[in-house]
Design brief:
The chain is of the alpha/beta class. The protein has a single domain, classed as Alpha/Beta hydrolase fold, catalytic domain (Rossmann fold, 3-Layer(aba) Sandwich). Helices cover about 35% and strands about 15% of the residues. The strands form 5 sheets. Strands 3-4-5-8-9-11-13-14 form an 8-stranded mixed beta sheet, with helices on both faces. A hairpin with a 6-residue loop joins strand 6 and strand 7.
Length: about 550
C-alpha cells in the first residue's frame, strides 16, 4: 500500500496481516497498566523513601477532573500534572509519567511495574449507563472519581487536601502539606486537645484537619479494603495530619488495619503520652538536614493563634515555613511536652570532590541535628526568640521544599544504595565518614561549652539547671550517634534494604530496566549525587554547614 502511495511507509505500520481464504492466528493481549512499586514490609527501604516522596508531592496537585462536580455524560482529566491525570490517564494507558509538581523541571520517574489493568491503582470508572451510582439524578449523592478519591475541605474551613487509591495489595493515602493561608492558621494553633480516638493529646490545628478527613477515609475503606497494607504519606503539615490519621485508623475497633507511615519534614503533632500510646505504629520519619519545620512545635509550646504577636499573621500565605510560624514565642503552661513519633531518618548533606552535592541518609538518634534547622530560624534568648531573626530566616527554609530538596535527596539515596548493593560496598566512604564525624565532634564541643556557660550562670529560678541536664543528656546521645555512624562504615546492604518486599519479585528486573532506560537514572559517580537545581527552582542542596549547628 505504501508503494502505491496509499499509506505511510512500512516501518510506521504495526499489526497482523490477514490473507483471504487462509487460516490466521490472532494473539489477543490483555489490557496492561503501570503502577508505582511500593514495599508492603515494615522495614525502611530506599524504594519507599523515593516513591512516597513523589506521592507526597503529588498531593499538592489538583485532582484535575473536568467537570469537577456533577458530571453528566463523561469525565476527563486533561490537567497535567494532576492526581487524576496520573492514575486515570497516564498509568492506565501504560504511559510513564515523571511530573508530580506543576513547577517541576527536573524529571523524576517513579519505578513502575507492569500489571494487569485490573491490578492498577484504581480510579473509579464513570459511566451513568452502566453504573447507577454515577447517575446525575442523584445530585449530591452522585458518585464520581473526584468525590471518591479526592478530599478537599476548602469550603468547610480546614482546607485539608488528600487523595486515596488502591490496588489488590495496597491502599495509598497521601496528605497535602501547607499550601494556603488557612493551612498556616491551622499550623499556628498549637494548643493541645485530647486525642479522642486513643490516648494523649494532639496539636489542635492538626487534629481538626484529621477529623475533617476521617470519615472520607473510612468510607473509602468500607468499600474497598480487603486486607491490603494501608500506606500513608505526607509532607510538612501533611505529615503531621498523616500521623494522627494513621494512629486513628490503627485504633478503629474490629478493623485490624495494617498501617505503614512515611512522613517528610513533619512538625511535632502530639504530646508524650500520645507518642507512647502509638509506639506500635510503624512510622519512618524523614528529616532533611537544615529543614526547620521538624523542630516545631517546640516541646515547651502550647499556644493558640489568637495569642500571637501582632502582624505575624501576614506571613501565613508563605507555604515554606509551614509549622514554623507558630514559633512566635509563648511557653506552654502545664500538660505534657510535644514529642516526635517514629524512627528518624536524617539526610546529612556532603560536598563531593567534584563540587556536586549529595547526602548521606542515616539514623543519628540525637536531637541536635534536627534542632539545628530551628536554630537557624530561632535565636533563643532565654525562652523568647528574637523576632527579627525569625522573620529573616523563615524565607530561607529551602531545605523544606519537596521537588528541590526531599525528592532529589531521596533519589540520590536510592541510587547510592543501588550502587552500594551492586558493588558490595559500605553505606559511607571513608571521606564521608570523616566529614560527618568531624561535624559531630564540633557539635559536641559546642554543647559542652554551652553546658559550662549555663553552669556558671546558675540563676535562682532553677531554669538553668533544667537546661544543663538536657544538654548533658544530649551530649550522651551525640556520642551514641557517632557510634552509629561508625557502624555505617562496615554495614553491607541487602536487597530488601533497597527494594523491600520487591527484592525477590518477578517484576523487579523488568521494572529496573524500564527505570534505567531514562538517562537521568543512569548517572554514576563516586556516590550518587543530587541532580543540580535549575535557575528557576526553589532552593539548592547545601554542603555540610557547621555554622548551622550551634
Amino acid at each position: 500500500m505504501a508503494d502505491l502511495g496509499f499509506g505511510p511507509p512500512q516501518p510506521a505500520l504495526s499489526g497482523v496481516v490477514l490473507f483471504p481464504n487462509q487460516h490466521s492466528v490472532l494473539e489477543v493481549r490483555p489490557l496492561r497498566a503501570l503502577r508505582p512499586m511500593l514495599s508492603t514490609e515494615d522495614g525502611f527501604c530506599a524504594l519507599n523513601l523515593y516513591q512516597l516522596a513523589l506521592m507526597a508531592t503529588l498531593s499538592y496537585c489538583p485532582f484535575g477532573q473536568e467537570p469537577a462536580t456533577q458530571p453528566q455524560d463523561e469525565v476527563r482529566f486533561p490537567v497535567d500534572p494532576s492526581i487524576g491525570h496520573l492514575f486515570a490517564e497516564k498509568l492506565s494507558g501504560y504511559e510513564q509519567a515523571w511530573r508530580v509538581d506543576a513547577g517541576q523541571v527536573q524529571r523524576f520517574y517513579p519505578l513502575y511495574e507492569e500489571v494487569a489493568y485490573s491490578r492498577r491503582f484504581e480510579i473509579l470508572p464513570f459511566d451513568p449507563q452502566l453504573y447507577p451510582q454515577n447517575s446525575p439524578k442523584l445530585a449530591g449523592e452522585q458518585e464520581h472519581p473526584a468525590n471518591l478519591h479526592f478530599f478537599d475541605d476548602e469550603e468547610l474551613g480546614t482546607d485539608t487536601q488528600a487523595f486515596i487509591s488502591h490496588h489488590d495489595e495496597i491502599v495509598l493515602i497521601s496528605v497535602r502539606g501547607t499550601a494556603s493561608a488557612a493551612d498556616g492558621l491551622r499550623d499556628a494553633n498549637a494548643h493541645q486537645v485530647p486525642f479522642a480516638e486513643g490516648i494523649g493529646k494532639a496539636h489542635e490545628g492538626f487534629y481538626q484537619a484529621y477529623r475533617a478527613m476521617r470519615d472520607f477515609v473510612l468510607r473509602y475503606l468500607d468499600q474497598f479494603y480487603s486486607g491490603q497494607r494501608i500506606v500513608i504519606c505526607g509532607h510538612s503539615l501533611g505529615g503531621a495530619i498523616a500521623l494522627l490519621l494513621a494512629e486513628g485508623l490503627r485504633r478503629v475497633k474490629d478493623a485490624d488495619y495494617n498501617v505503614l507511615l512515611y512522613t517528610y519534614g513533619a512538625p511535632r503533632a502530639a504530646d508524650a503520652e500520645f507518642i507512647r500510646g502509638a509506639a506500635d505504629l510503624v512510622h519512618h520519619r524523614i528529616v532533611n538536614h537544615n529543614d526547620p519545620v521538624p523542630s516545631v512545635p517546640a516541646p515547651w509550646m502550647n499556644t493558640t493563634a489568637k495569642l500571637w504577636v501582632s502582624g505575624a499573621v501576614t506571613l501565613f500565605s508563605a507555604p515554606a515555613p509551614g509549622g514554623l510560624l507558630f514559633a512566635a514565642g509563648l511557653v506552654r503552661v502545664g500538660g505534657n511536652p510535644y514529642w516526635h513519633h517514629g524512627e528518624q531518618q536524617h539526610f546529612m548533606p556532603i560536598l563531593l570532590p567534584d563540587g556536586t552535592h549529595s547526602s548521606v541518609l542515616w539514623k543519628p538518634g540525637c536531637e541536635s541535628l534536627e534542632e539545628a534547622g530551628c536554630n537557624r530560624a530561632l535565636y533563643l534568648s532565654g525562652d523568647m526568640p528574637e523576632r527579627d531573626n525569625l522573620l529573616k530566616q523563615l524565607f530561607q527554609a529551602s531545605q523544606h521544599f519537596m521537588v528541590s530538596s526531599y525528592v532529589p535527596a531521596a533519589w540520590a539515596t536510592l541510587r547510592r544504595w543501588q550502587q552500594t548493593l551492586d558493588n558490595r560496598g559500605a553505606l559511607v566512604t571513608s571521606r564521608e565518614y570523616a566529614l560527618i564525624d568531624d561535624a559531630l565532634g564540633t557539635m559536641g564541643r559546642q554543647l559542652q561549652d554551652k553546658q559550662l556557660e549555663l553552669h556558671r550562670r546558675r540563676p535562682a529560678n532553677g531554669r538553668s539547671h533544667e537546661h544543663y541536664d538536657g544538654l548533658a543528656a544530649e551530649i550522651d546521645r551525640l556520642q551514641i550517634s557517632r557510634q552509629r555512624l561508625e557502624s555505617l562504615r562496615w554495614r553491607r546492604l541487602q536487597a530488601r534494604d533497597v527494594y523491600g518486599s520487591h527484592a525477590q519479585g518477578a517484576n523487579l528486573p523488568a521494572s529496573l530496566k524500564r527505570w534505567f532506560s531514562h538517562r537521568e537514572n543512569r548517572e554514576l559517580s563516586q556516590v550518587a549525587s543530587i541532580p543540580p537545581a535549575l535557575h528557576d527552582e526553589h532552593g539548592k542542596g547545601q554542603p555540610l554547614d557547621l555554622d548551622s549547628i550551634v
